[in-house]
Amino acid sequence: MTEILPGVFLLDPANPELRHATNVVLLRDAKGGGYTLLDTGLPKGMVPRDMVSEVEQFCRAQKGSLSDIHRILITHLHLDHTGNLKALQERTGAKVYAHWMEAAFIANSPVYKGPGMLPQEPVRITETLRDGDALDAFDGLVAYHTPGHTPGHLSFYAPTRRILFTGDAVMRQDGPLTVSAPQYTFSQQMAALSLRRLATLDVESVVTYHGEPILKDGKQHLKTASEQAYGGKYEN
Ligand SMILES: [Zn+2]
Q1: Sequence-distant (≥ 6) Cβ neighbours of residue 231 within 8 angstroms
Q2: Which of these, 72, 122, 144, 183, has the minimum number of CB atoms within 10 Å of its CB?
């Protein structure tokens, strides 16, 4: 576990080569003495890691238990984000949040017809979010509807900390931030538009789900990626 910024913890896989392949993040809540989990990783069996026990170990290291996870925020339906959702929901008793559209797809009602790996087992999500909803998690989070990668994709912004948790609205491999590849993306055009919106936010740190986090000058990195997604500069 690495605290990349105060109160922002990344779960580190046993195999360091998998570091930043999927950044499952835990956030220390300013109020209520608990934690908020952001996305849940691929299921055990598909990867050489067991996210449920990693989260449990994290809680133990903080001298607590799994019931300290008060909320689970899901950015979108893809299996690498929802793979351990059911198990973690059951083990933690946390409230689970997703965009209302994505919540329907995660419940397989209707079954999602789009690219990317689908959830293996339906999960009913009762806490549905809309664009602009504020959450009393971490130091205050605002849900941003960032469609493109999937129709109901959410990013989460912490305005007082100037940190953006992007899910797959934007990602990294080794180099700069980019939108996701077309084979995993519902609408490349919408993804570029969502990124253009994110690039207007006052952001210092960008925590992507895939790739190493960017801790400084996030806004400039987002702007560059957004221009790249459009194939050049644009009028804001
Ligand atoms: Zn995805």
Answers
A1: none
A2: 183
Whether 208 and 171 have beta carbons less than 8 Å apart is answered as yes
pLDDT of 19 above 90: no
Instruction: State the distance from the centre of ligand 1 to the C-alpha of 63, rounded, in angstroms.
Output: 32
| Crossing angle of the two packed helices 51-61 and 85-92, in degrees rounded to 10 | 40
Q: 116 alpha carbon to ligand 1 midpoint, in Å?
A: 6
CA of residue 80 to ligand 1 center, whole Å? 7
The residue whose two tokens read 């925590």 is 207
Give the H or E element holding residue 229: helix 218-230
Tokens of 152: 């109901």
Rounded average pLDDT over 26-49: 94
Distance 78 CA to ligand 1 centre (A): 5
pLDDT of residue 199: 97
Domains identified in the chain and CATH numbers: 2-230 (3.60.15.10)
Three-state secondary structure call for residue 154: strand
What's the CA gap between 206 and 146, in Å, rounded?
15
pLDDT at 11: 93
pTM: 0.96
Distance 143 CA to ligand 1 centre (A): 17
Provide the pLDDT for residue 16. 84
Is the CB of residue 202 less than 8 Å from the CB of residue 159?
yes
Q: Quick one: which of 128, 52, 44 has its CA closest to 79?
A: 44
Structure tokens at 87: 């198990």
Contact in structure between 122 and 108 (CB atoms under 8 Å): yes
Rounded distance from Cα 168 to ligand 1 centre (Å) = 5
